[in-house]
Design a protein that fits this description.
- The protein has a six-stranded parallel sheet with strand order 3-2-1-7-8-9, sandwiched between helices.
- By secondary structure, the chain is of the alpha/beta class.
- Helices cover 35% and strands 17% of the residues.
- The chain has helices spanning 7-15, 25-29, 55-60, 62-78, 83-94, 108-112, 169-180, 200-206, 233-247; strands at 18-23, 97-102, 117-119, 122-129, 135-136, 156-160, 184-188, 210-214, 227-229.
- Helix 5 (83-94) runs parallel beside helix 9 (233-247) and helix 7 runs parallel beside helix 8 (200-206).
- Strand 7 (184-188), helix 8 (200-206) and strand 8 (210-214) form a beta-alpha-beta unit.
- The longest helix is centred in the N-terminal third of the chain and has 17 residues, at 62-78.
- It folds into two domains: 7-33 and 81-121 and 167-247, 3-Layer(aba) Sandwich (Rossmann fold); 42-78 and 128-160, SIR2/SIRT2 'Small Domain'.
- The chain is built from nine helices and nine strands.
C-alpha cells in the first residue's frame, strides 16, 4: 500500500529543481546493518570503541582495528539495499540537481546505484594509506593483517573517519553547498546527527529550503522541520519515488 504523502510536500516536490538528502544510521539499521556500538557483539563486546576506532588505536594495534572494520564490512556485505535506497536512486534520476549526503559507511547507497553521493564518514569498501592517503579499492580482504601501501610501504587503514578525526574539508564544503542550494532538504533516518552533519539542515533552512524529516522517532531536528513523516524510510520513500515517476502530478503540475 502506498504511503499517504502530505499535499504540501507533494507541491514542493512538484516545483523543486534542487533536492538534497541527508541519510543516517537509521537507514542502515532498516537493512540490518548495526552502528558501531550495535556491532560490538561476541568477542568485540570486550573492547571499548576507543580501542577499535581511533587513530591512536590503529597506531597501537593496527591488526585489531583492521580486524574490527573487516568484521563490520562483512556485516554490511551480507545486507542488501532496501526499497528506500532504490527510491533515492529514482530521485537522483528525476531532479535536475540532486545530492545525497550520508553518514553511513556501509556502501549500500553505492550498491543500490546512487552516484551523486557524498560519504561524509568514508566507506568500508575502501582502504587508504595511513601516511600518504593513497586510496585502494581492491585488496586482499581475507588478510587478517593490515597490508602495506604500494606507493610508500606504510600500513593501509580503513577509509573511514575514525573518532577524533575530521571530515575532509573538500567533502564538507561540497555538502554545505548542496545544503545551501537545495529547494527541498530531506533528513532520512538520522536520529543522531553528529557534527559537522548536524549543521547541514540548519544551512538549508537559513537558505530557504523546505525541510522534511523521515524518522519513526522524534529527533533534535523535529522541531525545526517543515514536514515530519513519522515512519521508516522504507515505508515513505518508495511512495515519493512512485509519485514523482508519474503516479501523481507531473513536475509542471501543482497540488
Amino acid at each position: 500500500m502506498s504511503y499517504e504523502l502530505p499535499p504540501r510536500l507533494l507541491n514542493r516536490l512538484a516545483h523543486a529543481q534542487r533536492v538534497t538528502v541527508l541519510t543516517g544510521a537509521g537507514l542502515a539499521a532498516e537493512c540490518g546493518v548495526p552502528n558501531a556500538r550495535g556491532a560490538q557483539t561476541g568477542s568485540w563486546a570486550e573492547y571499548d570503541l576507543i580501542e577499535l576506532a581511533t587513530p591512536q588505536a590503529f597506531l597501537r594495534n593496527p591488526r585489531l582495528v583492521w580486524g574490527w572494520y573487516a568484521f563490520r564490512r562483512g556485516l554490511a556485505e551480507r545486507a542488501t539495499p532496501s526499497p528506500a535506497h532504490y527510491a533515492l536512486v529514482d530521485l537522483e534520476q528525476h531532479f535536475p540537481a540532486f545530492s545525497l549526503i550520508t553518514q553511513t559507511i556501509d556502501g549500500l547507497h553505492w550498491r543500490a546505484g546512487s552516484r551523486d553521493l557524498l560519504e561524509l564518514n568514508g566507506s568500508l569498501n575502501r582502504v587508504r594509506c595511513y601516511e600518504c592517503s593513497t586510496l585502494c579499492l581492491s585488496w586482499d580482504t581475507e588478510s587478517h593483517e593490515p597490508l602495506p601501501c604500494a606507493h610508500c610501504g606504510a600500513w593501509l587503514r580503513p577509509d573511514v573517519v575514525l573518532y577524533g578525526e575530521g571530515v575532509s574539508s573538500q567533502l564538507l564544503r561540497q555538502a554545505q553547498l548542496a545544503a545551501e542550494h537545495a529547494d527541498v532538504f530531506l533528513i532520512i533516518g538520522a536520529s543522531e546527527l553528529a557534527q559537522p552533519a548536524a549543521t547541514l539542515p540548519l544551512i538549508a533552512r537559513r537558505a530557504g529550503a523546505y525541510l522534511v524529516e523521515v524518522n519513526r522517532d522524534e529527533t533534535a531536528m523535529s522541531v525545526l522541520v517543515d514536514e515530519r513523516l513519522a515512519d521508516t524510510a522504507t515505508a515513505v520513500l518508495p511512495s515519493v519515488a512512485e509519485w514523482l515517476m508519474g503516479n501523481g502530478l507531473s513536475r509542471e503540475g501543482a497540488v
